[in-house]
Each structure stands twice: as structure tokens, then as C-alpha cells.
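1st attempt posting a full record on here, be nice pls
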Amino acid sequence: MEFSRAVQNLIADLRELPGDRSRAKNRQPSELATVVGELLVKYRISHDSLEHSIREKWPELVGVANASYSHPIAVERNLLVVLVSHAVVRNELFQHRETIMEKLKLLPGCAHIKGLALRTG
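the predicted structure (as C-alpha cells):
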């Protein structure tokens, strides 16, 4: 039977033996394949990210002219953050945001996005 570190240290104190005072956790070794698989799922390495699929479809969503001056960066708090290089394009995207959102929600995994956050830069 295995005891917790605290119990093992109590027993060591009662027996007047040195206890394990390190802060390291006693973990059982894991298989490398299991750890790598968990990391691939956690950081979505083997899957296309939501942002990547939006970037691929961006010219279809906003038009080729606007797509060359704007770039979707990330999805934060259910908002798609878009970096826009010109104020004119920013205004154009702002005017057509409802149409863009309708097209965006048709993409897989994008139904939870509620709006656009346009940033000039």
C-alpha cells in the first residue's frame, strides 16, 4: 500500500528516519506516446485551428480587395480580432459587418463568434 508523502514523513519522524522533504511530486512514469498524444490534443497541433480556417476563407468573406489590407488574428471572448492596415478598409468592414458575420457563422466551428473587433495597425 502506498501512503501520501505527508503520511510517509510522519512515519519517518516517528521512526527517527530522514523524511522526503522535497517538493517534487511522486508521479508514475507515463508512456511517451500517451504524453505526446495529450499534448497534440491540448495545443491542437495536429488539427487546423479556428483562426487558420478563417484566414483561408477571408478573401471570400470580405472580398479580395479588403482581404489584402486586413488580416484576422485571433478569436478572443467570442470576437474575431481583425488587424486592418487602412482606415478606409476599416470603415468598409465596419459598414458590412453584419454580412461578414452571416458568412462567418456558416464556417464550421464559427457559430459562437458574436462580432468583429477591428484594430488599426
